[in-house]
């Protein structure tokens, strides 16, 4: 069993009303680490309950307009750069695997 009861409902609204498969959601919730999955524009796609708990701390990381942001603009810029770098690395890895 993960860090949260299976019957506990999410206190954080799901972005765009989208819900992952229950299997995927349950798998994410088994992780003790906070996971916030975003698209290339930092739009929140999904998060586990530990990720929700991090956001509820309101100590710098937040979701505004369905996008992952930081309280300070320069930190939001860093988040965007990190996401872009991860996507570039994932694209390179896919290309290497296709050769």
Structure, explained:
The chain is an alpha+beta fold. It has one domain. Helix content is 42%, strand content 15%. The chain contains 3 helices and 4 strands. The protein has helices spanning 22-29, 49-56, 73-98, and strands at 36-38, 44-47, 61-64, 67-70. The strands form 2 sheets. It has a two-stranded antiparallel ribbon. Strands 3-4 form a two-stranded antiparallel ribbon. The model is unreliable at 1-9 (pLDDT under 50).
- The separation of the N and C termini measures 40 Å
State the secondary-structure class.
Answer: alpha+beta
**Radius of gyration, in angstroms, nearest whole number:** 15 Å
Percent of residues in helices comes to 40-55%
Strand content: 15-25%
- Write down the overall geometry: flat
Describe, in short, the structure shown.
This protein is of the alpha+beta class and 99 residues long. It is 42% helix and 15% strand.
Give the helix/strand layout.
Blueprint: H1 22-29, E1 36-38, E2 44-47, H2 49-56, E3 61-64, E4 67-70, H3 73-98
List keywords for this structure.
99 residues, alpha+beta, two-stranded antiparallel ribbon, 4 strands, 42% helix, disordered N terminus
């Amino acid at each position: 069993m993960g860090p949260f009861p299976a019957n506990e409902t999410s206190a954080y609204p799901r972005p765009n009303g989208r819900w992952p498969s229950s299997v995927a959601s349950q798998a994410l919730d088994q992780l003790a680490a906070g996971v916030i999955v975003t698209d290339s524009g930092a739009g929140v796609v999904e998060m586990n309950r530990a990720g929700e708990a991090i956001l509820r701390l309101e100590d710098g990381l937040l979701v505004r307009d369905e996008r992952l942001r930081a309280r300070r603009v320069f930190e939001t810029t860093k988040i965007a750069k990190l996401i872009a770098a991860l996507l570039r690395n994932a694209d390179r890895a896919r290309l290497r695997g296709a050769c």
